[in-house]
Amino acid sequence: MNKFILEGVNLWYGDFQALKGIDMEIPANKITAFIGPSGCGKSTLIKSLNRMNDLIEGCKVSGNILLDGESINGDTDVNALRKRVGMVFQKPNPFPMSVFDNIAYGPRTHGVKSKLALGEIVERSLRDAAIWDEVKDRLKKSALGLSGGQQQRLCIARALSVQPDVLLMDEPTSALDPISTAKIEELVITLKKHYTIVIVTHNMQQATRISNRTGFFLLGELVEFGKTNKLFSLPKDKRTEDYITGRFG
Amino acid sequence: MKRRKPRDLVLFLLTWVCVGVTALVLLTVVGYILFNGVPYIRPSLFAWEYTAQNKSLMPALVGTLMIVGLALALAVPLGVFSAIYLVEYARRGSRFVKVVRLTTETLAGIPSIVYGLFGFIFFGVFLGWGLSLMSGSFTVSIMILPLIMRTTEESLKSVPDTYREGSFGLGAGRLRTVARIVLPAAIPGILAGIILATGRIVGETAAIIFTLGNVARMPNHLFDTGRTLSAHMYALANEGTHAGEAHATAAVLLLVVIILNAVSSKIARIIKAN
Questions:
Q1: What span, in angstroms and rounded, lies between the C-alpha atoms of A158 and A102?
Q2: What ipTM goes with this model?
Q3: Residues of chain B with a CB closer than 8 angstroms to some CB in chain A
Q4: C-alpha dist (Å) from residue A42 to A15, A47, A219, A221, B145
Q5: What pLDDT shows up at residue B188?
Q6: What is the CATH number of domain A2-244?
Q7: Which domain does B11 fall in, by range?
Q8: Least CB-CB distance to A55: which of B163, B168, B181?
Q9: Which secondary-structure segment (H or E) carries B237?
Q10: CA distance B166 to chain A (A)
Q11: Cys-Cys link to A181, which of A93, A145, A173, B134 (CB 3.0-4.6 A)?
């Protein structure tokens, strides 16, 4: 089962072409990693999966992106799309409000009003993000008082609160220490049972530890895409081999 | 402890002296006003009706509060919503935004007497509002509009984009993102702008005398004339015979400004806590 199908996706920032003819099939309930050197287009691509690129001025996309067989281009309801395709960002970005309100913000946005229902959603989301035990006694306190790693798991819980199908993660551990990173990686592996996960990472070890599929990007092109263990042990393309063996990047 | 290098010491002394001079100037002004004014603060100074004997500042105090209230009620929504449009909705760097920004910057640099003359001719004569609370408050509201807009714009811009991304990423629309995430985070900065604007209104004399007039009478309705504390001080000092009462008025004015600031920061804290 494929969650996303990308057909000839091109993307421009003004005159600069950031993505060149990307064809790709992203399987459901698996972890797909995007790797590549800085500026290769991996973050750009992940942001086009929930149309966060719309916010950037002068950004133009051509080609087709299908989610469960339906195009997300053109006049798709982007708010409904982003509810289905949640996102976790590079730097933890909790809102300047209480832990509870951070998680309740999403469901409230989509019309959940009852206190009881919100309470249940908040607890479930925090449990799913493996942070409930650490914050259950401080739900009313500001989320900005949490550590960086806790904040990032809170942001994962926040993304889960609206029950998405897909979780996009744009270098979610690049701002974190190794222990927090390990916790998040462990969490991501458990989450794939219920969610399709796409993760951008700078860290090749991370891709090998957690992902099922890996795509290697270079200068806006998808150079190679396949099963993670295959791509890292028997890369088909010379450029992939050079990158994963550390010859550049 | 390392010994200070001579250059460090000089710089240290220089900054220390500057801080000292600044504090001293402020304390001298406040002290001078209190020393000369407080002995003249008597109950009769707060009598409802002004007479030539009691020199009551009550009509001026009421006039000040009404002008501040009306002008803020006009300028704050207009300024805040314009700033929200410019920062959150308009295409960044578009021609329209540039023109609006140029006009607000120009407006901010115009001397208040010019606003006074404009207000007098436009509101007072052309619209026929005469010298009145309406003319006065509309005039000063135009005067503080650029200030409110600029400070609101700056505080909206200082809200990190990551907050907006987080909200959009959850499927929230622009309206909800601005109302629930961006605006609450920007409130302290916006309130700081409102406090500055209040200070400008309270301290204004030229534009006020032109448009509200300077009559020591309790205003009965919005189209009635009146005076503000600053204009009252100007009148008393001009008469030359009541310098003490003028200082007393200045002392009360200081107190009013302090109370207004305390109230606004209290409001800021309450908004932030919720």
A1: 7
A2: 0.90
A3: 91-92, 160, 162-173, 176, 180-181, 184-185
A4: 18, 9, 10, 9, 45
A5: 86
A6: 3.40.50.300
A7: 6-39
A8: B168
A9: helix B229-239
A10: 7
A11: A173
